[in-house]
Design a protein that fits this description.
The protein is α/β, with parallel strands linked by helices. The protein has helices spanning about 15-30, 45-50, 60-70, 80-95, 110-120, 130-135, 155-165, 180-185, 185-195, 215-220, 235-240, 260-265, 275-280, 295-305, 310-325, 330-340, and strands spanning about 5-10, 35-40, 55-60, 75, 95-100, 120-125, 145, 170-175, 205-210, 225-230, 245-250, 270, 290. The strands form two sheets. The chain has a seven-stranded parallel sheet with strand order 3-2-1-4-5-6-7, with helices on both faces. It has a six-stranded parallel sheet with strand order 10-9-8-11-12-13, sandwiched between helices. The N and C termini lie close together (about 10 Å).
Length: about 350
């Protein structure tokens, strides 16, 4: 039996959580499910899914999101603000809802938050480390882990080549992510670039993304000749195809889904040992794990991989194989099972 599923995402921007919501919705369309997206009009997620053949209901806040949840079998909240709209619909109409939890921050301890989480049919965490936070918050919550998927990002060979040609003769060390230094730790990339600009002039660090900390990070980088900011980009696959090494020295992460996309391009990886990252980066196999807030370890890991091309190739091959198990279709099947249980259908 086909379900009518409402997805709520009230984010104004487009980060990893919105990319995963888009991947899930498109995969569910292929599975023949009827869907409604409740999102801010004119924002990236609504605009990107305008061609998906689903109903899009615009909203600007909690009450309008609640009203937009009418007439569905199950509600899925993809970010924190949507949780309360889903809970309110459940209070008024009894419509079941599930929550996806993407961050390993502590959950707020207000009465409303406890009520909203406890009434959810299930809380799906993107990593075991995130699920641990849910368990610590309330062990009675029905909880499970559904990992993010790789994005299957397209690559235009000419565009990827033009990115490389902009840095002739360079070994490109890339990072893709929101310029949110408290989470992503781009300051450590800048620090390592500064340390290595004279000793390794063949290295080119490239930061892809935009965000609230862009001006601060650009100011911190100054006129470093070996570091460039690409700005926000929709063609992330082209940049990954142009990189020689991918680094993610985050201070905190849920799962770091971009790592799966980097693995899909057979890139060797350096990532922080935080949140759910060790669940997908197996140290010494498909990447190197370092401590967070450690430019020293980041520098050592970069040099280790640069000096060992055989290790880079082996890690890239293992990563590509590993990423094959993280598809949007597999993620959609797991969520569909949650929706069916929530709506009272046979699992």
């Amino acid at each position: 039996m086909t379900l009518r599923i409402a997805h709520i995402n009230l984010a104004k921007g487009y980060r990893g959580g919105e990319r995963q919501a888009e991947l899930l919705i498109r995969a569910l369309q292929h599975l023949g499910q009827e869907q409604v997206l409740i999102a801010r009009p004119g924002r990236p997620l609504a605009e990107r899914l305008a061609d998906a053949g689903i109903e899009i209901r615009g909203c600007t806040g909690l009450l309008s999101a609640f009203r937009a949840t009418r007439g569905v079998d199950v509600v899925h909240s993809h970010e924190g603000r949507g949780v309360y709209a889903a809970w309110l619909r459940n209070e008024i109409s009894g419509t079941p809802y599930i929550i996806t939890r993407r961050v390993n921050n502590p959950i707020g301890d207000s009465w409303l938050t406890r009520r909203a989480y406890s009434r959810a049919s299930s809380v799906a965490s993107v990593a075991a480390d995130v699920a641990r936070i849910v368990e610590e918050f309330d062990s009675r919550i029905e909880s499970c882990v559904i990992h993010s998927s790789s994005s299957g990002l397209p690559v235009d060979p000419e565009t990827a080549r033009s990115i490389r040609d902009a840095f002739p003769g360079k070994w490109i060390i890339g990072n893709v992510g929101a310029l949110d230094n408290a989470q992503k730790g781009q300051e450590y990339i800048i620090e390592v670039a500064r340390r290595m600009k004279d000793s390794h002039p063949e290295f080119q660090f490239l930061l892809v993304g935009g965000g609230n900390d862009e001006a601060m990070l650009r100011d911190l980088a100054g006129d470093l000749p070996n570091l460039a900011f690409a700005g926000w980009a929709d063609n992330v696959g082209d940049y990954l195809a142009a990189f020689d090494l991918f680094i993610l020295p985050s201070n905190k992460e849920g799962i770091g889904g971009i790592l799966l996309d980097a693995m899909d391009r057979a890139l060797p990886i350096i990532a922080s040992r935080v949140g759910g990252l060790p669940e997908i980066v197996k140290d010494g196999e498909n990447g190197v794990l370092i401590d967070p807030r450690s430019p020293d370890q980041l520098q050592v890991a970069i040099l280790r991989l640069y000096e060992d091309p055989d290790l880079r190739r082996a890690m890239g091959a293992h990563g590509k194989e590993f990423s094959r198990g993280f598809t949007a279709e597999a993620m959609a099947q797991q969520y569909l099972a949650l929706y069916r249980r929530a709506a009272g259908f046979e699992p």
